[in-house]
What does this fold into?
Amino acid sequence: MRVLIATRDRKLVGELSGVLPDEHSVVVAGDPGSARQALGEVDLAFIDPSFLSLVDPGSGKLFILVADEDEVPEDALERGIWDVLLRPLRNWQVTMALNRAERMLAFIPPEEGEAEEEFVVGSSRAIREVYELAAKVAPTKATVLIEGETGTGKEVLARFIHRRSPRAAKPFIPVNCGALPETLIEDELFGHEKGAFTDAYYQRKGRFELADGGTLFLDEVTSLSPNAQVKLLRVLQEGEFERIGGAEPIKVDVRIIAASNENVKKAVEEGRLREDLYYRLNVVTIRIPPLRERKEDIPELASYFVRKHGRRHGRGEMSISEEAMEMLLRYDWPGNVRELENALERAVILAEGDEITVQDLPPWILGEPEGERREDGIFIPFGMTLDEVERLLIKETLLRTGGDKTKAAQILGISRRTIYRKLGELS
It folds into this structure.
């Protein structure tokens, strides 16, 4: 993550620099001119009160204000400040703010047009039926439940529905319910009032308020805690909620699109999801078929991803050899479209010329035995630290599972929440 520290206070620069992990790229600016110039190259900015003029809510950047309590403007959140840290700083405060920022930045979308273009790639009957149903439901206010295996493109479909709806000019706010600890999910969704709990030094808006007028996408909705489910049901029924520690109902106009990579009805039968909430979410259900059920879409998808990542990595126009395409069609793609994209981005990077050949594809797609010591598989060079080995193993496992963190956690023998935590540490 790229971080800007905008302040004239050298002591504050030292405090923040001492806490930020080494893997983050840090830029320091001591005047508004250089800070404004640096903003274009960063994701997150720590600012002191004298740099408030930098804050632009529409910039896609996250701004964290670091100040004494009496220096925090009452309308800080309305002005676009995403988080507030009160001085004197404590290391754990900065670390928690940084972790929240990393989660939020993971939700910031790519170009919206690109997301829509990606979804409509493919001409199989299965995907056209999904497309037609999504286009039909998009202009309505109906709550939508999307079911599909990991990597099938549930968030891409949700963005497509949002872009085709009357809410397109308003925010699309995604929340991965499975990525958030149970102790934080309610705070993330509904926010809190100043003094609601220890160290709640200021009011904080939740995702529902941020999505007001737009769409809230709840991925892995069956992971919600029972308390969060009760609050969510109330929002769906009455269009209001209270922040944690608050007594005043807050009205919002938010469309909910929920998604799950498991059978939601089974989660209801097992008592993990409230039945009344299920019926509220299940106004229109759209099932995205796995890639193995629509292999005729692979050539179109493959060509699209090669063009996309060819541009991204400065490789220009590239093509796929007939032999490589044949291997793509033979493979069953347990990680679905996400695994296909990961494999082709890797191939774009590794290809010697402007054509992707069989040799550029991941070995497991070619049917090579697992566990072989090979140059481009999990080969661990001598001298790597334990942290570096862990980084390599997690990334390679996620690549092979097409980004399926549940499957990767099972393979690695750790919990899914540990995967999410480690990803935060390793980003």
Notes: The first strand starts at residue 2 and ends at 6. The mean pLDDT is 83. Residues 91-107 form the longest helix (17 residues). The two ends are 7 Å apart (CA to CA).
